[in-house]
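Exercise (ungraded).
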Amino acid sequence: MNDIFFNTRDLAVGYKGQVLIRDIDISIKKGEILTLIGPNGSGKSTILKSITKHLEAIKGDTFITDASVSRMTFKELSKLVAVVLTDRLKPELMTCRDVVATGRYPYTGSLGILSDDDEKKVTEVMKRVHTEDLAEKDFTAVSDGQKQRILLARAICQEPEVIVLDEPTSFLDIKHKLELLNILREMAKEKNITVIMSLHEIDLAQKISDKVMCVSGEVIKNFGTPDEIFKADIIRDLYDITDGVYNIEFGSVELPASKGEPDVFVISSCGKGINLFRQLQKDDLSFYAGIIYTNDIDYVVAKSLASEVFSEKPFMPISDEVYEKAVRAMKNCSRIINAGVEIGECNRRLADLIRIAEKSGKLENAGDKI
Amino acid sequence: MSDITERLADEENEIKSAKLKRYARYNTVFVFLAVAFVVITVLNINSGSVGISVKEIARIIFLREGDETAYDIIWKIRLPRIVTSAILGGGLALSGFLIQVFFGNPIASPFTLGISSGSKLIVSLTMVVMIQYVDYISSFAMVAAAFFGALVCMGFVLLASRRVKQQSTLLIAGIMIGYICSAVTDFVITFAEDTDIVNLHNWSMGSFSGIDWDDVWMCFVIIFAAFVCTFLLAKPIGAYQMGEAYAQSMGVNIKRFRVLVILLSSLMAGCVTAFAGPISFVGIAVPHLAKLMLKTSKPIVVIPAVFLGGGVFCMFCDYIARTAFAPTELSISTVTAIFGSPIVIWMLLSRKR
């Protein structure tokens, strides 16, 4: 308990006295990154707003070290917590530098005039997030990615212990997403700033977070390290995915497999089949895949997209049972596609399979066709 | 190594020169406003249905001597009117600025949100009742009534703003409130005693005329105090321009801030209405022009510029109202509308890029 920096105890949040989510027990250490994931409208923003005191908690409280957030004045809180919100900001006639400088608010005098020291800090932070070129540009004229970085700079300028970000990566393209998250990661590690945010991209959440909380339904069911959270069943349950498959190894999602009796047999290995699998899925053709070792990346995708996968344990010779099943299935198909295979000592029977296919006259090479 | 230090020095210089450029701009704007203020004051004193020479005017003002009629015209008619239009103009523009910050809407103002009309209604009711039963109405009662009317209307607009999220709907609600209040005021005027009507009618159209020095002092104290308070709020206003949520996260006590802004803007709008009737467009046009000239929305420079600019704008409009078709006098709102509405239209069009 002693090295826990930020925690919520028995927190219940919602609007107008109506509880939306209860039993929120976050506990993270200083400099850790906590990510809230969950479907749209599940209440990620509501939790974040309650943590930052933008919304009154219905029950329970948030604590930074041991100080209660609900008992702090806004002024005290402003030196501990800074925010990056989803509100689309349209400040009038403000340069990017002006926006960043508003972060110094808690530290300036009663008229809000910046000291030389404040100015230096603004310059420093803008450089830190690679926005020094934007300083004199009008805030409304820069791109979404740049805006988000400016707003992050503003938050850092506030010299907080905790930064709370509500979906900082929406509206950004993949490059800017990575850039932003990378800056956050560096901030957390270098300056020991604790980061709490919500993300839509579960693949990114998996990679950047120290702790993850799943938000859906009235109680928080899962809170833990990414290793504990990113399991196919937890994620599928969280997002209520029934069609389509969440791919735990890649952190990505495949569309649901085509239905119906398979009429195509794909022989592949070493990832060469993936594109073909996806193409067949798009053409709404159901297919068999085989014979693939379970440690092959083709296997991971085929499992999601093929109606049946004939597989063998890694580095084992292909067993009679699997081989015969595959041959039988192949005979029932009108097309057999060889997407490319590597044949070695233990999978020599794959060559036999291809020979049978060749004899039947149904074999196509993926290179010819797709 | 020296390369890096050189580059750092360069960057620092760049920031410094940008800052200096800004300050130069602010200075230019304030000098311009001050000069305009002096020029229009002189023009105003110097014009009227009775011709008085500049020499005579200088003698009357600085030496307090001269022809009795001319003396009275200058001291009892022209000067109070000029000072009033300057003070009330400043107050009205500042009230508009505060309301725009509050609602985050560039075309909100005491006039468009019906707040001026609300004050007008309560003031005219008070006037009719007081004249009927007491035969006298004090300036203080007028201001109090106007302030009350402004607050009531502000309350309605706030209620509406909770329900509607769209800014344009809020404006329409405000305009409708304004119409209702004006209609009731007209009704009151129609059925008022004959002698009151002339007074009420002139006033309800908006005019800076007929104000004595006691009233001028009262205006000055109220508006100037409100100006100082607004200036002291420059820091939270700046934060609030980033939106309520950000302002709060910077440490602004939002509830207290909102109450202060409502009280200040209602007080100024009410005070203007009590003494000069409802005046349109000043509240929108002046803050917009001030920000455009300064090329910033930083409250610490915008607030004094709006205050000064409002004074200059109203003095100028009053000058036109008095002289354009002399001896017939136009109502002040006629002139402010002619100069103010094109600015608002232009503003809306340039925003839709």
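Further reading is listed at the end of the chapter. For now, observe: Chain A has a mean pLDDT of 88. The CA atoms of residues 3 and 194 of chain A lie 13 Å apart.
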